[in-house]
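Dear colleagues,

As part of the handover before I leave the project, I'm documenting each prediction I ran so the next person doesn't have to rerun anything. This entry is a single chain, and its sequence is reproduced below.
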Amino acid sequence: MSRKHVKATEENQSNDKIEDAVVDPFTVIKEGVSPKLSPKSDGTLEYQIAIRDDEKEFYIRVSKNSSSGLFSKAWVRLEDIFTLLDEQKDKTMKSAVLKPVVAGGSSNSVGFMASVLRTISILEPVPDNVFLHRLSERYETVKTELRALAAESDD
């Protein structure tokens, strides 16, 4: 996997000196595109999976929406998502189940994150209801693979 470091931002630059620097501690290891949940929605969502360099933990976020709809670009710790979803085994769920871990006041944020989680095979749609989810058949495998990658980054 190729690694791309998220660009650091700089603030208050004078006389070629950086007085204050804000450094993004995330190294993006995967980027992808996801369809939205609703078949009536236009556009796609872009997402990123990253390692937080100081914690060696995986995070995920929706980074871009190609059409309309406000949403949060905040990083969400994947272990928090796993903990939440582990409680949902053998259940169907709405996107709102993600509210405790997905930041932002927009109702789109949880729906967009659910779309991404489907794309990476953590969730899958419930037959006959495009807006309901369940854990995918690959959930445990994907979780194990992501944890192994995080452990490798520790080396």
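Confidence is low (pLDDT under 50) at residues 1-21. The CA atoms of residues 58 and 79 lie 8 Å apart.

All the best with the project,
I.
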